[in-house]
Amino acid sequence: MTWTVYLSGEIHSDWRDEIARGSMTAGLAVIFTRPVTHHEASDDVGVALLGSEPDKFWHDHKGAQINAIRTRSLIEKADIVVVRFGEKYRQWNAAFDAGFAAALGKPLIVMHQDEHAHALKEVDAAALAVTSSPEQVVAILRYVIDGDLPGYTDKAASR
Amino acid sequence: MTWTVYLSGEIHSDWRDEIARGSMTAGLAVIFTRPVTHHEASDDVGVALLGSEPDKFWHDHKGAQINAIRTRSLIEKADIVVVRFGEKYRQWNAAFDAGFAAALGKPLIVMHQDEHAHALKEVDAAALAVTSSPEQVVAILRYVIDGDLPGYTDKAASR
Amino acid sequence: MTWTVYLSGEIHSDWRDEIARGSMTAGLAVIFTRPVTHHEASDDVGVALLGSEPDKFWHDHKGAQINAIRTRSLIEKADIVVVRFGEKYRQWNAAFDAGFAAALGKPLIVMHQDEHAHALKEVDAAALAVTSSPEQVVAILRYVIDGDLPGYTDKAASR
Amino acid sequence: MTWTVYLSGEIHSDWRDEIARGSMTAGLAVIFTRPVTHHEASDDVGVALLGSEPDKFWHDHKGAQINAIRTRSLIEKADIVVVRFGEKYRQWNAAFDAGFAAALGKPLIVMHQDEHAHALKEVDAAALAVTSSPEQVVAILRYVIDGDLPGYTDKAASR
Amino acid sequence: MTWTVYLSGEIHSDWRDEIARGSMTAGLAVIFTRPVTHHEASDDVGVALLGSEPDKFWHDHKGAQINAIRTRSLIEKADIVVVRFGEKYRQWNAAFDAGFAAALGKPLIVMHQDEHAHALKEVDAAALAVTSSPEQVVAILRYVIDGDLPGYTDKAASR
Amino acid sequence: MTWTVYLSGEIHSDWRDEIARGSMTAGLAVIFTRPVTHHEASDDVGVALLGSEPDKFWHDHKGAQINAIRTRSLIEKADIVVVRFGEKYRQWNAAFDAGFAAALGKPLIVMHQDEHAHALKEVDAAALAVTSSPEQVVAILRYVIDGDLPGYTDKAASR
Amino acid sequence: MTWTVYLSGEIHSDWRDEIARGSMTAGLAVIFTRPVTHHEASDDVGVALLGSEPDKFWHDHKGAQINAIRTRSLIEKADIVVVRFGEKYRQWNAAFDAGFAAALGKPLIVMHQDEHAHALKEVDAAALAVTSSPEQVVAILRYVIDGDLPGYTDKAASR
Amino acid sequence: MTWTVYLSGEIHSDWRDEIARGSMTAGLAVIFTRPVTHHEASDDVGVALLGSEPDKFWHDHKGAQINAIRTRSLIEKADIVVVRFGEKYRQWNAAFDAGFAAALGKPLIVMHQDEHAHALKEVDAAALAVTSSPEQVVAILRYVIDGDLPGYTDKAASR
């Protein structure tokens, strides 16, 4: 049984690849999906493909709707949704994805630094795990997918 | 037929009451619901009712979960969800509510100032109207609920 | 038990009022809902309320989205959806509403003239009744809601 | 991860094959599905398989219902629905499919010429992209499925 | 809290009225809904309202579809569905309604004589109660709605 | 794309195998599923596996519930449901399956002889095709799955 | 707006009435629903109404299914589900109700003593509040329904 | 067609492996899924991966929520859910899983000893089979998946 995990949120660090590498190392049967993380492509895709817009609002709108084709489809196909909030920017799209996933009943894993905990308390309250690093996410996926917990299951035949 | 409209988001101005007053003046058959907007009550409700927590994370968690009993119920009961993003704070809960409402298929009206348009483009792309003032929301509700559009429907018997 | 019936489609004749009057005369416990049928209001509502658009596409888009707040809500609240196709115009919104209602599992009654039967065969195939006049719709509602069929149930105590 | 895209609407040009060829050239992992596009077969399938009908209405009805077995199944299985409106005919079935897909929450891409924009404004308002050529649809699929945007992602390692 | 109970199936005895009278005597807050039980009206409604059909199949089809507007709506609105199988006829519509209600997750009460038990075993297996008389149905409704069980709850203040 | 078709109903002739053979000859990508069609096994499975019951009602009940594990699962997994009503027996389980499939929105193909048409009119009214032979079902599947209609699509490159 | 709260679980103390009284004193617009709490009636309802069973298993089965008509309907109608675990008995039905409510997405409030916390950790993890007394439940309902938090909202005009 | 069966409940005997071995011997096309059954790992996973908690309640909470990522996903992916209640402990999580599965409409097989029958009557009433041994579960799966019933189908060509 292969699991599908959608990695939403912050696009300025390589946390997605860290999770993917860690999961590959652990041998997990998991497919990771993600939004388009090329910032300029994501901003301009609407006008690049469907014609320029003099008004920045519609420039953004056309792009955001094309991105939504990808992101909503992938969230709906996912078994688990991970949302990372970074240090910078308002990242309302990350919180939007978290709400979207929660309403669909998708198990939600949130990742952020401690200083954002209070501001993210409603999002955290909808999550089944609140993490602060890609390593923690990989460890959770190892446990959830394979039932492995270092220091416990490696001591005995647990299954 | 009475409509129910949930007013989510910013809690530091009286925009909800403006919408309510404007709708009452217009004679709309609408019930407005809202989160608890008393900031301290909303923050402390968990520990105030269920016992203190030395760890701020769990202090917040207990409160946020009790707030979620109210907010998720009211979003699900709503015909329309209005989400206002204010000038300050990160307001991730507002974006979370918008995503939650969108996944449930609720018609979404967003309210924010122009300078946030780019940061909110994914949220706006999920909305059926992007507004900047309570007056605009009232005008939309008048049209949606009663079919009234000043300058048009007052000139003739439209229905 | 009160029924709710949404009357979608053609806006250039008074078929909705004929159905409403006929149902009132028959004493049916039914609430009729409808889109905004003032043509100019429906076209211009977006720019009238949220600011003008130099590009006609966005002029239309803003209006159509506000209309969707009303129409999608009312279709979802309806027990039965009636869609009338008139003589003129392409009326793609009528067919869109029919598809929308069908996917939600709403019982669908279609009204159109015979010459459109071939072009509407896919829509008719999704309907539970294909009618050609408001009188037929009223007669169906009398039967569906009250169980009355002239020439049959008026001869005996049928219920 | 393979995507499934349903191509609904106009059947008198080879736009479906253009999209399929373009997607194959781009190496996309996508399966395209479509209605039966042989016009006479589509019209006559009911009577050809289940016996002739003297009344044209039932001739059409039997055929349209058999077509619905295919089209509704394929729309429900699709990740994305593309609907093209051509130059001719009323194409109510295309608009019906668009409404059906919208109510199921399927991401919708619409294709039509500019002169139909006003008449299709309600359909466009439900779409996440409004296009005018098969090339644009292929470009959107490349972006949505593979994250490729020429001029952007080919300049750098985007993922 | 008022309950709604749909009474499906056999139309040749007055079991529906017995249940209604018994429930009224017991003072239950319950609304009973039912199909049109006038046999000839139910058979002919299609042609009576929408024009005659030379082919009996379409005569029946038009009528059955109009009846479906009523029956499917009422089953979906019901809290509980009661289906009675009588002594005569094949009553496939009763079994169809039972399957329809079961798939919607409606609590199902079946009523039939013992000699049909084997033939109805699949239907009974989907039911939460298998009864043989209107009195039993009333007694179940008294218990389910009001919590009254003669010989038990009348001996003490149970609530 | 492989289709799954559930074959419900009459178990005393080999119609299922005829459909399967015909589909294999036509080269269709289809998996057929079916209830357990061994009559005695189907009747006795409950007591054979879980212990005998002195009361025939519970004997039947235990068996019918185990059969339901199979039949409900397979109906829910099916793309299309075919229900055949034979000459004999009351076949309430066939009509129950048809109602169950209809409520789930599964495309329904019914098979029966003409003399049952009136008694089955409510079931037929919920179907997208009413057939009288396995050959007709195979022909419909060829059209629905592969788009082939002899006399039409074999004359030309239809796709 | 009236709220509906289902009170599931332990039936040997009067906690339900305490919550109802407390809510009435607080003036909350809330309807409380509950299972039949008369222990013997609940155990015997099946055989009392539908005939005795020599086998205790079927005695219980008939009763439990009739109780399920009430309990599942009321859980589905509820806005909030409260489940109390008492000191005694295994109370598997309480945990079953909690799982049932959780899968339906109902906000869940759990009530139990501290010594059961470890054994109930999976149930608590699905809850939005874990309480230990009727007073706490009333206080939560006051906050959730009316936005009142003593010591906070009574100091100021909070809404 | 491969079936997926989730094995919930008691973790102190090797009943899951017995079912898996028996099914493999029978050649069934079935994938078995299960919770993490290493007791200590299951208890401690939250703090082991996300940091220690001085308060046992939160220690448990963090672990139970991570376990829920696995268990809820697997129940939703399952075709059939088997829940075993053992001799010891309160096993509220087993009953919770049964309720969760029931609300999702999953066919439920329960396994327990006779002495628990009365206490589990509500759970049993939601099940399609009540068993007492892994052998019975394997026999049911053989019948449900392959249609094999020893003493019946091995005497004849049943399919």
From TrEMBL, chains A, B, C, D, E, F, G, H:
Organism domain of life: Bacteria
One Pfam short name: Nuc_deoxyri_tr3
InterPro entries for the chain: YtoQ_family_protein
Protein name: YtoQ family protein
Organism per entry: Hoeflea marina
